[in-house]
Amino acid sequence: MTDTCEAHLFINGFAGRGRAARQAENISHRLWQGGLRLTTAETRSPGSLIDQLAVACESGAKIVLIAGGDGSVNEAINGIMEADADPRLGVIPLGTGNDFAKTLGIPLAWRRACDRIIDGIGRPETDARIDVGRCNERFFLNGVGIGFDARVAIVANRMKWPAGQIRYPLALAKTLMSGIQIPRVKIVTDESVLEMPITLISAMNGRIAGGIFPLAPDARINDGQLDIVIADGMNRRQVMRLLPRLMKGTHLSLPAVTLIRSRTLKLETSLPLAVQTDGEILTAAARNLDIELIPGRLSVIGGRPAE
Question: Core-most of 11, 110, 185, 204, by most CB within 10 Å?
Answer without folding.
Answer: 204
